[in-house]
Structure formats: C-alpha cells, structure tokens
Write a structure and sequence with these properties.
Length: 453
C-alpha cells in the first residue's frame, strides 16, 4: 500500500524528541500500559476526547482517514523490539491522548546514559509518529476540522499546564526537571534564569509547567551592547535559537511541499496585503530548542504596523522523506542505536506555510530596512503563539513582543528585496547540517556598513 513518511521528525531537531528510536518505543510501551484498555476506559475519557471520538466516528471521510493512517504503516515499522504492538488504531490513540492531557512532560532519565537528552517533549507527536508519515495521516492532519479538534484538546491540556498540579515534574527526582541529569542539559540554570532554588516546594519558585517553560532571563543576561541600542541599522536576533536556513530571492508562490521546501511568501504570510512587498526578499529562519528560552523580542527599533494570528496545522509534515535510516541501516532494528542523530529536519521550511503561526509586521526606524516581518511558527503539541504587542505600538530592539507556550517552535525574519540586508557570516550555515547557535538580542545583520566588530 502506498505510504509516505518523514525521516527527520520536527521533534528530533532541537531536542524535542529522543534521537534513539529505542527510547521512543520504550516510552510508548510504558504509556500503553499506563493507559490501559481503550474500550474499557472510553466511557471515562475527558469530554474533549469523547468529542474527538465522535468526530472520527460520525464523519465518513475522517473515519476512513483515521483507519487508513494506521493500516498504511508498513508492517516492519509497527512493532517494538519485544514484538508487542504499538499504537494500532484510533481508539488506542485517543486512550493515550486522554492520559497525556492530564500530565506535564517529564525529563527522561536513562541510568545507562544519565547525561543524555532523551526527552520525549512531544508526547502526542510520539503517538502519531508513524501515522504522520502515511498518505491518510497527511490528509487528516491538514484537515481544518481535525486541526480545530486538536486545538480544543490543546486548550484543555493548557489548562492543566498552567495549573499548580503541573509542577509535579518540577523536582529533583530522577525524572524531574531539576534532577542532576536535567540540570546537566540546562547549564548555569540558577545563574541564568529567574528562579528560587531554595523554594521549600522544590519547584524553584515556578507555579506551573507553563511558568517554567516561559521562564525569564535574569537581569544582565542577553543584554544589547550599549553602543548598539540606538543604532537603527542593526538587526538583532528575535529568539534564543539555532539557524536553520537563510534564503534569498524568495518566490511569491513556490512548491513548498517538494524536496527542499522552498519558501512560498504568499502562503507564509497567509495572503496578507503586505505579502507582495516581500516577494524576492530574504528569509532568515531559526528554531528554538526544547530546553531553551521561548520568548520573542523585537529585532529592530520601529513601530508595529500589523499583527495577525493564523490558524493552521499541528501535525502536517513534509511528504518528501522516507522511512529509511539515512545511514542505510534499519531505522527500527532493535540493535540500532537510533536514526539521524544530527540530521536537519526538512519540514522546517514546509511548515512556515502550513502551521499555526503569528505575523508581526514592523516598520523599522531605519528607512533602509523599512517594513519587515517576524513570523512565529508553532510546531506540534500546544504550540500557542501569544503576542504582547499590537498595531501602533512603538518597539525598541530587545523589547519582548510575545512568547511560545508549550510546543516546538521556529521563527522567521522576512526582509523586502529592496532591503540590502547583510547577514553576519558567523550565522550563515555552512551546509545542510550546520545550525549556528544565536543568542536572543545578539546582533545578526545590518544595512549599510558593518557597525560592529
């Protein structure tokens, strides 16, 4: 039966999902045991999961799609190393969803490799890992009706993640976010972020998972150099991120679903009236890692001329990759240590035209920059984009403009073709596997002569 799959999942790019496939299979197996029998439990599911079941069962094309997304998975990819079936049908899927939306993500502790980052930061993405790669799954995950139901489910999950109960995973226990293993992946956490390590609760002063996820830098961290604060010719990084791609002469409309995923400006900007001004311009894209800072900051001094929230997809990924392990081995051989440990995810550009996102158009003070656009793109899970600015607001470079709530995320800075933007060489990827790290508020580009060394 025909199928498609994405080899490099969004989650593996940025530490959101384990690179070792065995870890992911083991996590799914434990969750299946925790969830229990889907038929027996279904009457006790949360109402939003009950609604999801009704949607699947009452709409013929969705019922067909949610059956076929499981039957189209090739047999060799269906079982874990012990031969036990993994997620096989939509009832098992919904049963797992019911468990997941009442939990916050734990840190994954592996006693055999205690300093490894094997975080399952996208638990729903993990459940949908194989269905996302099928033709039927692709069709379902671009459905506005299905995505609207995911949004309802995420709203319920968000209520939990903003509650005090979600601090259960904020502890120094083995699977806690303040365990030695976790803090090994969060270097200088106490010195870097506003927190209280002496908090008697053990939660470091955080009142919810969301509070922890959207944590703030301490004063003095990531500040803009004084000599650049009033220099309107300099563009600064909007996010703590790693560069994915820099593209020039982006087309108005392009075949973003094909291999390489070229940028498609009109679709990225959701057919906005400002979109034609960016055709032929420059795109700077960078992604945010799971353990990093998730707030956005203005890249320039200027004025916000427009903000737009764009509803979109959560689990639609590029259809151009395959199940094959890039090193030629069996990606799901129980002896295989894991697939593509460093490969970039080619869906990064694809989702800029598909995923839930927000647009912030800013008219920079320097007329040589002029109108530019910041795009925040949510990827998987809750993926909420919260804007803190509105039309007419004056913004200063480094000023907070919004944040991502729980979920993967990438962002773009768009410049018009007449903006002769010069990107700092240290942030230009050398090849497809190079992802230069860039601190939020760091100078990354300029117009005119380079104003800093």
């Amino acid at each position: 039966m025909p199928h498609r799959s994405v080899r490099n999942r969004v989650g593996q790019f940025g530490g959101w999902m384990p690179q070792n496939r065995r870890v992911l299979r083991s996590w799914i197996a434990r969750k299946l045991v925790q969830a229990g029998d889907p038929i027996a439990n279904s009457t006790n599911w949360h109402s939003v999961i009950q609604d999801f079941r009704r949607l699947i069962e009452e709409v013929p094309e969705i019922y067909k799609g949610f059956h076929e997304m499981f039957t189209q998975i090739p047999p060799e990819y269906e079982n874990d190393p012990t031969g036990k079936p993994q997620v096989k049908d939509y009832m098992s899927m919904l049963n797992l969803f019911d468990v997941i939306i009442s939990e916050a993500p734990e840190w994954h502790y592996d006693p055999e490799n205690p300093m490894a980052n094997d975080l399952v930061g996208f638990p729903i993405n993990a459940v949908l890992d194989w269905p996302m790669g099928t033709d039927a799954g692709y069709a379902m995950f671009i459905s506005p009706t299905v995505n609207a139901q995911f949004k309802k489910m995420f709203d319920v999950w968000s209520t939990y993640l903003t509650s005090y109960a979600s601090t259960a995973v904020l502890s120094d226990a083995e699977n806690g976010w303040f365990s030695p293993s976790a803090l090994g992946q969060l270097p200088n956490f106490v010195e870097t972020y506003i927190c209280d390590p002496d908090d008697p609760s053990g939660h470091y002063g955080f009142t919810s998972w969301d509070h922890f996820f959207t944590r703030l830098f301490r004063p003095g961290q990531r500040e803009i150099d004084a000599e650049l604060v009033d220099n309107n010719a300099v563009v600064h990084s909007a996010c703590e991120s790693a560069v994915y791609r820099i593209a020039y002469n982006a087309k108005a409309r392009d075949q973003f679903w094909l291999k390489g995923q070229p940028y498609s400006i009109i679709h990225m900007l959701n057919n906005d009236p400002y979109a034609p001004q960016f055709v032929g311009g420059t795109v700077f894209q960078a992604f945010l890692s799971a353990t990093k800072y998730h707030r956005w900051h203005s890249p320039v001094n200027g004025v916000v001329v427009k903000t737009v929230l764009v509803p979109g997809t959560y689990y639609a990924e590029s259809p151009t990759e395959s199940f094959d392990d890039p090193d030629g081995g069996d990606q799901h051989d129980p002896k295989d240590e894991g697939a593509d440990p460093a490969g970039p995810n080619l869906s990064q550009a694809f989702i800029t035209s598909m995923a839930a996102r927000c647009l912030i158009f800013i008219r920079a003070k320097d007329p040589r920059i002029g109108l530019m656009c910041f795009i925040a793109v949510g990827m998987s899970e809750v993926s909420t984009c919260e804007m803190k600015v509105q039309e007419g607001d004056a913004v200063s470079k480094g000023q907070e403009t919004g944040m991502f709530h729980f979920g993967g995320s990438t962002h773009c800075l768009l410049f018009r073709p007449e903006t002769n933007i010069q990107i700092d060489d240290q942030y230009v990827p050398k090849d497809d596997t190079d992802s230069p790290e860039v601190h939020v508020k760091a100078p990354i580009a300029w117009v005119g002569d380079k104003p800093y060394s």
